[in-house]
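A quick word before the example. In earlier lectures we treated sequence and structure as two separate objects. From today on, think of them as two lines of the same record. Here is Tyrosine recombinase XerC written that way.
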Amino acid sequence: MVEASARGAGDAGKGERDGAAGGGGADARGAEASSPPPKGSLDAAIVRFLVHLQGERRASPNTVAAYRRDLEQLSRYAHERQAQQGAGREPAEGGRGVRGARGARSEAGGGRAAGGRGRARAEAVEAEGGAASEAPVFTPGDVDVLLLRSFLGTLARTHSPASIARKIAAVRALLRYLERLGEVTKNPATALSLPKVRRPMPTFLNVDAAAEVMEIPDEDSPEGLRDRAMLETLYGAGLRVSELCGLDLGNVSWRSGPAGEREATLRVIGKGDKERLVPLGSKAVAAMRVYLEARGQLRHPKTGALDPRAVFVSRRGVRLGPRWVQKLVQRYGALGAGRADLHPHALRHTCATHLLDGGADLRAIQKMLGHASLSTTQRYAHVSVDHLIKVYDEAHPLAKARKTG
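And the structure line, produced from the sequence above:
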């Protein structure tokens, strides 16, 4: 089944303890008694695609898990549609509640019905007075435009345009992969129209609010020094939270500047394992230096253990995970800027917007943030212009005159 066979490809890295980034690998649920999907089936193709994403494409565990969920949903829908076509019934919305890729337990309590379809088809045959037999294998070649449009039609009742667009992208990627391998002759998903998705503009803090958030951590404790360095690095270097948590001590390069001041550069491993060098600003450098001097105090209280590689560690000496960092940023956002909804990515947006406001080139910002496309970086230009117009309307005397006139 897709879930059992691909669980190891999608659940790597789950499970945090005390803010530590878990490295649990394959989920224990993947060890459930189950049979592998039939060779040549859609389920088998999905499993191979997920392995390809994780191994060759170096996709993050979260990305692989998202693809797995979306493709499992298509598989469940396709299997029930195949089983119910003869009965003239439509599958459940979006393939929910269907014994499809997740499979159904046999009466003996052993393995799952191949492809999650055997039991449904057997019951249909028995209802007609015939002998129970296993349904034919549903192959990638059986995926056509009619199936996909029917699938998306059911999703439209319960899912947002953004969610539907993501699922279309997952199906397109799977079929494009199979087309390259010669396992399908064409990609029917290319005939689908993407729903219009309104992408919200990036949220960011103004300069004063950002400065207030940076000042909140208590610098009399090693945890406070860590949090100050963490906030300054998120804001000063524009890192993604996964990049921040993945920083190793060996990724920080120190050198002396022209006037003898200390400078630092981060070697960041971004999406797709792409590497880039990001400079740290003077405040981030100062905060990082002070924190690293106190880092040795963050050890496990009983064993004295301390992660020898991770830059940012918990009070138990283990690498901080994204969820823990998110909680810390929310806490300091509420205390410093009255923004309990502040998240690490908002500090990344803030970094980009302030760089642009300060005259930085879009290409330079793209390189610093690790954006694959310049169009992603250009979103900050729109934010910056909107912010400029708002400031103008609030401050310029002519704008005030127009409002009162």
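Notice the following. Residues 207-395 form a domain with the hpI Integrase; Chain A fold (CATH 1.10.443.10). We will return to this example when we discuss secondary structure assignment.
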